[in-house]
Amino acid sequence: MMTSETNYPNFNLSINPAGIAILTLLHHKTDSSTFQFEFLEEFVLLAFETLELPEVKGIVYKIEDPNPDFLEDYINYFELSKDREEFQNRINYLHQNFYALKNRPKPIVALINSSCKGTLLSWMLWADYRIAVVNDRATLGFQEIKYGIYPGFVAIFNAMHQLSAEFVVPFLTQGNSYSQNESLSIGLLNQVVDDEETALKEAQSWIEHHPAPTKNKAIGISGKESILSAISTYQKRANPLIPGNQIAIHLLRRALELNFKYYLQEEAQQDLEVLSKPETLNIVRTHYYGIRQASIASTEIDFELKRLGILGAGMMGSGIAYEAARSGVDVVLKDVTIEQANNGKNYSEKITSKLVQQHKISEISRDTLLSHIHPTEDVNDLNESDLIIEAVFEDRDLKATVTKESLLFISKNGFFASNTTSLPIADLAVSTEHPENFIGLHFFSPVDRMALVEVIVGKQTSDETLNKALKVVRQLGKVPIVVHDGPAFFTSRIFFNYLLEAITMVLEGIPAGKIEEVAKKSGFAVGPLAVLDEISLALMLHVYDQLPDLHNSQQRAYAYLKAMLSQERNGRKAGKGFYDYLPDGKKEIWNDETISTVSELPDQEISKRLLHVMALDSFRCLDEGILTKPIDGDIGSVLGVGYASQTGGVFGHIDLVGIQNFVDDCKRFEKFGEQWNVPDSLVKLAERNFTFYNGFESNSP
What we know:
alpha/beta; 701 residues
């Protein structure tokens, strides 16, 4: 093997006796994230130089010991895009060279030896042929769409002409990761082999048998129809307010319509377009950097959850048990009877059996997971639990009873947590002699699909207990935010204001169907009245009953919900609520004939009221110390209560609107109820033209 020094610091080059050039992206460059343009520009130039060597028959490129936690440097990417001309020139230069590289006379093979995502996967799609070294934990995919950006560096065009037509659009737009076997089945990989030595031999053999580069696969009529149908399906469900979604749809269509040269010109223009939108930066800040930081922040504390006790085997307790068992933790799942406890374990059995049927886990993995869950009706079985989580019904007396009953069974270094949506931790901690070891862990339902956990610090909760709780949440693969004690904490509190505003508008005579329609157009996945039906009106009333007092707007909503209950309109399970649920599974909005319809409020005003009311109360939470930093509010709002994604969260929304405009709107809305009272502190910030963020950095009010 001949190794050659190059003038390209990101790469090593070696040429074997058979004339196969191996270009290796250096490991330290995949640890550093400031290199998208840099390494791609170097690659195309080095590839040209190498292919011109007469002894070289083809190229194999790979990454030296790839970093599985490779971090895209979107911060640098956005910074570069501020100089529009320079950014456009670099994109054009790269695309021109890539176009020339596509028309080179010799073949290129990519070798993938670990997980490969984002920019690195776009780069791998430049090859004629892709070989992976077997790795059961390796995944491939484009998660960019989750961050408001589409797969770049020509990934859309390359995937369109290389992957199976029926899979290409979901692959590019759903943000999912694919196993090596799945990647092989859709054409993302061409081969999977046992080790790198074998991979290099297979690459050499393929090059020798394919001395000319492969041409882009022609897409037949049926393939185009399949792709266009998938694009239309994606367009119907994608949030049109997210710039990356709209541009992705545009580029997917253009990849079918244009030849390679003209497509490159189209994508180069769109790259700058998506980065210039403030919504894109907000989404990246929250969904990429914010959530990542919350998920991986190190907690220097000598504690590991090995044995977990759960009180209550209902929907919530069963979901927590599943997530803990999936993480390898032994779980004692206690309920009043062994039958109820076993039903809780059955929840995990149903989930895992479905995953086995879908070939996502093996039967051995399922059996191992289920072996970690131990149903019981005997409180003594909780003995030596590192953590006990109480997950019973939202009732102070019931929670106090089960807490007192189980405290004796916590290990010496353990702690106790209440899974509560709204009851103050200080009140619940009265049940224990050691309130410093008591904390709130608010999981969201369904637990196996909801990533957020609200970690609620009581007045007497110790820092040690907080750090243990954060470590547990991350051990379970969840995203924690830290909030301080108070009625309904943060996510539930702002969510109740969202529901309150919808009820208030109904009582004003605004058609219920219009409220639901505008909510979805504003970026909410589900309308507020549909949410009320799902959780049940009785539960909403129960939550109101737990609050220390209700202001006038809440009292009006409370009275109206009670009136609906008297008509047996309790929500979806009752077959009627704000919707009527029909036998064929469909639903129709219910219009209360006792309320006179007013002339319809403009959509923009309804949208503002739904978005602003949650953002305003989020500011109050920050002002009162329930929240300590804006990013926790943004993460909690988008992950916990489905706040409109295009805003990046509640504080991102205020910045998008402009704080003075926001305050002016809220003051106009004060006539609708106490939920619109504007704190003096927010007015003063507006006078300073304050922003909660400066790009990716947060500002302290």
